[in-house]
């Protein structure tokens, strides 16, 4: 049971003398959130799994320096062994190395696409909610329009149509990455935008905003420094879940053969290559599939835990 | 009420126009055109290609092409597939029944699982049953269909050898055997889609039931001596279903697009796999028509959700 009073904005609390800080560590909003989050057992499990996956994909290729494109037909389609812990594919390439490398791309896609979506959503939602009026209705019609677009077909279409042009402009790897990340992000900003707008509509009538306005705070500062921090809780949850759905979206496009090229083995791409060898090499499909599943379920549990932790009405 | 309906229907028109503008712009800005192959063919002089482009109006400015396309769509002329050499609407109508059969059965299955499981979970929250059901729902919700599809193929087709993993359109059988064969080959795609939908629906049903179950009128129902079953089914479930119905209506278009992947895995000859092959062969009229059909589904089901909501919940007033 939490009995401490909630502090709306952490940094606005007046600074205490140093010795008082040492004696009583202050309970801030975020330390309370962290305390509640720690009590959500499955969210903690999800955090640990996600940390392991993150460390494995970022440090893994250094600790396990097997090249991802080392073709060796003598060992093609062999199951897990000491030399190849996750087995090999049809060209005898080491799957563990490919999965570790692909994990980097998959997670980078998830994170960057989510950041794009959240930034877009925050800007649009904040502007619509703060200024209101005609501006608000135009932006909200735009949001409704984007919500009515069929996501997956449009994703496939844009990636397919602009693939070659992006490849020419930014090089084969970076071009595809930028394209996929911006398309996924560009089709997912609507939910955060609505959440931010709803919070802004409620918050801009509050007394503290009025007080800030009286003190002569300009609009931009009012939005960024005073209202936005109070509107963050739902956005944090949406952002967390957004990483998972962006990883899923990338895997789906790559699985359908329209995403990353074979020399950039993301998890979805490996799974797509493996689907024709299910009888002779089931391990090939199992490992990348399990990785996607583990990443997505951990992120979903983390999001669940954050939702509970950030909701001050909820008693944990 | 009628005024509200009319206004709500009228609002969908600008949305549809907006969607068509977005789709058309994407296609018009894209590099590559359907006559690109001809450029590589040394037997066709460049003038012929340019004449063809001109004849099909590809050189006109984008707004002109858009208006021409829009009026043609409205008149029911959906164009001609560059690849299959058939009218687009015929091509889509050919594929639609398979998609509708698989999707409809899958969604039915999802409801059959989600409703009882969600209700039972909510009646005894945090019981053993609820914990197992919630965990399963969470796992099912996080398993992408392209992975479950492959797992199902491995287990039921390759290991147990019970079910075929390729959907065939030419089944040589008649009568009951034909029906049985059809069900056998549709079983895996239906199960994959149905279980995925069931997982997310169960979470909604449970949450919605829990919102209602603690309200005062439920206590009243119990106090006046109704049996537990009648309280739950007649009073709690009836009210809990209102948001669920809306969610079902809002989710349906998403299921159509989500089915693209399942159709691709099991090679189900529906509109999803048609879309993928059309995208890969730059068959612009087909791509355009299918994406537009998907968007229309979204808009229409949003409208249906709004209207149903008003009918189901008398507390909502139309103003």
Percent of residues in helices of chain B: over 70%
How much is the average pLDDT of chain A? 83
Q: Report the radius of gyration of chain A as a whole number of Å.
A: 23 Å
Q: Pick out the low-confidence regions of chain A.
A: 1-10
Instruction: Compute the number of helices of chain A.
Output: 13
Order of H and E elements of chain A: HHHHHHHHHHHHH
How does the helix and strand content of chain A classify structurally?
A: mainly alpha
Strand content of chain B: under 5%
Mean pLDDT across every amino acid position of chain B:
82
What is the radius of gyration of chain B? 25 Å
Which percent bin holds the helix content of chain A? 55-70%
Q: Biggest β-sheet of chain A, characterized?
A: none
Most extensive interface between two protein chains, with residue counts: A-B, 42 and 46 residues
Compute the number of strand runs of chain A.
Answer: 0
Give the helix/strand class of chain B.
mainly alpha
- The CA-CA distance between the termini of chain A, in Å, is 7 Å
Instruction: Pick out the low-confidence regions of chain B.
Output: none
Question: What is the straight-line distance between the termini of chain B?
Answer: 8 Å
Characterize the largest beta sheet of chain B: strand count, sense, and whether it forms a barrel.
none
Beta-sheet strand percentage of chain A?
Answer: under 5%
Q: Any idea what the shape of chain B is?
A: globular
């Amino acid at each position: 049971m939490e009995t401490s009073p909630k502090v709306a904005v952490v940094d606005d609390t007046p600074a205490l003398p140093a010795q008082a800080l040492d004696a009583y560590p202050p309970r801030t909003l975020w330390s309370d959130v962290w305390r509640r989050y720690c009590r959500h057992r499955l969210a903690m499990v999800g955090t640990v799994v996600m940390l392991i996956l993150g460390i494995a994909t970022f440090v893994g290729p250094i600790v396990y320096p097997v090249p991802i494109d080392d073709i060796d037909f003598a060992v093609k389609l062999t199951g897990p062994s000491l030399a190849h812990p996750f087995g090999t594919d049809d060209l005898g390439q080491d799957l563990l190395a490919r999965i570790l490398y692909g994990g980097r791309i998959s997670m980078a896609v998830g994170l960057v696409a989510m950041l794009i979506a959240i930034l877009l959503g925050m800007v649009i939602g904040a502007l619509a909610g703060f200024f209101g009026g005609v501006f608000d209705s135009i932006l909200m019609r735009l949001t409704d329009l984007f919500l009515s677009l069929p996501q997956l077909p449009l994703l496939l279409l844009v990636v397919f149509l602009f693939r070659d042009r992006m490849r020419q402009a930014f090089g084969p790897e970076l071009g595809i990455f930028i394209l996929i990340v911006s398309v996924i992000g560009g089709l997912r900003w609507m939910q955060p935008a609505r959440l931010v707008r709803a919070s802004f509509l409620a918050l801009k009538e509050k007394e503290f905003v009025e007080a800030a306005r009286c003190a002569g705070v300009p609009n931009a500062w009012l939005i960024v420094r005073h209202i936005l921090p109070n509107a963050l809780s739902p956005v944090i949850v949406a952002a967390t879940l957004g990483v998972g759905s962006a990883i899923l979206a990338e895997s789906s496009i790559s699985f359908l053969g329209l995403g990353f090229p074979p020399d950039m083995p993301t998890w979805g791409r490996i799974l797509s290559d493996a689907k024709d060898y299910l009888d002779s090499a089931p391990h090939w499909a199992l490992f990348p599939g399990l990785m996607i599943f583990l990443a997505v379920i951990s992120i979903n549990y983390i999001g669940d835990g954050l939702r509970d932790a950030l909701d001050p009405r909820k008693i944990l | 009420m009628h005024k509200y309906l009319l206004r709500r229907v009228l609002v969908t028109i600008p949305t549809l126009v907006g969607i068509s503008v977005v789709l058309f712009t994407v296609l018009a800005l894209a590099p590559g055109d359907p006559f690109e192959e001809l450029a590589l063919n040394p037997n066709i002089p460049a003038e012929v290609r340019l004449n063809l482009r001109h004849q099909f109006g590809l050189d006109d400015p984008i707004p002109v092409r858009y208006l021409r396309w829009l009026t043609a769509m409205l008149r029911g002329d959906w164009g001609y597939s560059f690849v299959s050499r058939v009218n687009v609407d015929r091509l889509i109508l050919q594929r639609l029944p398979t998609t509708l059969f698989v999707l409809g059965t899958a969604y039915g299955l999802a409801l059959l699982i989600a409703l009882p499981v969600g209700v039972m979970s909510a009646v005894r929250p945090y019981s053993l049953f609820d914990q197992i059901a919630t965990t399963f729902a969470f796992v099912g919700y996080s398993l992408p269909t392209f992975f479950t599809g492959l797992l199902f193929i491995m287990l039921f087709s390759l290991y147990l050898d019970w079910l075929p993993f390729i959907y065939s359109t030419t089944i040589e059988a008649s009568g009951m055997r034909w029906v049985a064969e059809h069900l056998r080959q549709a079983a895996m795609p239906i199960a994959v889609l149905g279980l995925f939908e069931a997982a997310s629906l169960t979470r909604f049903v449970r949450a919605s039931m829990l919102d209602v179950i603690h309200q005062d009128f439920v206590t009243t129902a119990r106090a006046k001596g109704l049996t537990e079953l009648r309280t739950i089914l007649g009073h709690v479930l009836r009210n809990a279903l209102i948001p669920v119905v809306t969610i079902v209506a809002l989710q349906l278009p998403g299921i159509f697009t989500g089915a693209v992947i399942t159709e691709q895995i099991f090679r189900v000859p529906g509109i999803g796999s048609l879309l993928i092959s059309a995208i890969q062969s730059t068959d612009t009229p087909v791509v355009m028509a299918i994406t537009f059909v998907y968007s229309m589904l979204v808009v229409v089901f949003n409208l249906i959700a709004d209207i149903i909501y008003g009918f189901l919940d008398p507390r909502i007033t139309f103003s």
